[in-house]
Amino acid sequence: MAIYPCCFSFLLVSLYVSFCYAEIRLTEIRHDDRPIIPFDEFGFTHTGRLELNVSNIALSNQNPDLDMSKVGFFLCTRDAWMQVLLQIEDGYINCALNSDFVKLVFEFKQLKGKSNSFNTVYQENTADQYTLVFANCLSHVKVSMNVRSAMYNLDGKEKHRDYLSAGKTILPRVYFIFALVYFTLAGIWIYVLYLKRLTVFRIHLFMLAVIILKAVNLLCEAEDKSYIKRTGSAHGWDVLFYIFSFLKGVMLFTLIVLIGTGWSFLKPYLQDKEKNVLMVVIPLQVVANVAQIVIDETGPFGHDWMVWKQVFLLVDVVCCCAVLFPIVWSIKNLREAAKTDGKAAVNLMKLTLFRQYYIVVICYIYFTRVVVYALVTITSYKYLWTSVVAGEMATLAFYVFTGYKFKPEPHNPYFVIDDEEEEAAAEQLKLEDEFEL
Fold it and tell me: Please, are residues 23 and 232 in contact by the beta-carbon 8 Å criterion?
């Protein structure tokens, strides 16, 4: 049956959809014959609610003898879905709606008369993470409809609606705290630049701009999630978040490239190959930002949602790899210079610095792209906020390391170097030549 590949793809989707924040969704389904259409995933507490409003329902086959019990909506956990797959595979059922492992929300057989719409409120008192799913087990029947879904938990004694999934409900505070940390960091950096204003390069001002953009981006994200938490809608804060997220992403990758090339530290210009890296990274960041907007604003029910998810991951990986090349080139140039200019101690210092930065960039990329994703996958839905905290802590550590290692200093801190130190550095450089990245 056609349901098997769709079931498998649904499982894959469910692994990614944890990145999505549930809110009030307005979805248009047009002439869709997929047997399984996943909507948003949401972590319910013991006071969970699902409001489902479906209108303009139309089937491509108007035969009155159709079994409408095979079309409808249900809620399902990931573990329960595995059991549903086993039931279908063993032949116990031929439609997911018939499984006792799913929680039926509405079957189309409940439509009264010739009605083409319905409204229902489903109470979920079992705390767990559920996905709202539409099932159409009628062969060769296409469905069109407008779906408005709202999932929330009733919070506190006054039963306020909380539209953020359990485990993500504290994210507005988390983002706001990190925004304050970055604003504080920007203030400290401004103070450092003022104290050492005689040795400030343009790259240091660029670092300041990156910190401020990161702080503003986190502030917009805090407001975005705060409005979603209270009202189910971002009220325009999502637009500001996307704008500053794009600017922050472009500036951060550009900063890594500029530091990696030694711009302002080793040389006041960029070579053609280094400019080409920037010409690759910046357009890719535009594509990544567009993909992120599509992923967040559509959801897994879209036909092309998974394609955009894969595009985003691919582009992100390419950007992360591209920014490593300038650092490698700088290390190579420093090694070659060490053999000719006779400044062994200074070159060893610079070479050690760029090697450290290369390793830290790799660790930062690996942690924020792999480890954080692994935390999202394996962590209980109640503690999904921990993956956000881990990612932001890693980013903060990377910013602090970069600022500390490349802070304004005199051009050459090794003005007074005796012969023994110079000879020791020269011997160390010979060992460094054997190191391969």
Answer: yes
Kindly tell me the sign of the dihedral angle through the C-alpha atoms of 329, 332, 338, 339. negative
Q: Judge contact between 124 and 49, C-beta under 8 A.
A: yes
Residues paired with residue 292 on neighbouring β-strands, in sequence order: none
Of the candidates 159, 158, 172, the one whose C-alpha atom is nearest the C-alpha of residue 46 is 159
The pair of three-digit structure tokens given for residue 109, joined into one six-digit string: 């057989």
Matching residue, tokens 């609606």: 161
Burial of 279 (0-12, 13-18, 19+ CB in 10 A): exposed
On whether the 24-162 domain is CATH 2.60.120, my answer is: yes
- Distance in angstroms (rounded) separating the CA atoms of residues 360 and 51: 47
**CA 164 – CA 108 distance, rounded (Å):** 29
For 277, other C-beta atoms within 10 Å of its C-beta total 22
Give the position of tokens 């450089």: 429
Cβ-based neighbour number of residue 109 at 10 Å: 12
| Distance from C-alpha of 299 to C-alpha of 16, rounded to nearest angstrom | 10
Distance CA 108, CA 114 (A): 11
The dihedral through the CA atoms of 203, 208, 211, 215 has a sign that is: negative
- Reduced to 3 states (helix: H, G, I; strand: E, B; else coil), residue 132 is strand
Helix (H, G, I), strand (E, B) or coil at 410: coil
Identify which of 244, 202, 111 has the alpha carbon closest to the alpha carbon of residue 406.
202
Alpha-helical (H) ranges within 17-135 are 78-90
Q: In sequence order, what DSSP letters do the residues of 282-335 get, joined into one string?
A: HHHHHHHHHHHHHHHHH-TTSTTHHHHHHHHHHHHHHHHHHTHHHHHHHHHHHH
The 3-state DSSP class for residue 60 equals: coil
Alpha carbon separation from 353 to 56, 212, 259, 281, 408 (Å, rounded): 64, 25, 11, 24, 14
Please report, as a single letter, which amino acid is at residue 18.
Answer: S
Q: What ranges do the domains of the chain cover?
A: 24-162, 170-431
Q: What is the mean pLDDT of each run of 10 residues along the chain (437 residues)?
A: 46 43 80 89 93 94 86 93 89 90 93 86 93 92 94 87 93 97 97 91 93 96 94 88 90 90 69 81 83 74 75 86 85 71 60 84 90 88 93 96 88 43 51 49
In the prediction, which pLDDT does 136 show?
A: 93
Q: Say how far apart CA 7 and CA 37 lie, in whole Å.
A: 9
Of 111, 152, 145, the closest CA to residue 130 belongs to: 152
Structural contact between residues 330 and 354, judged by C-beta atoms closer than 8 angstroms: yes
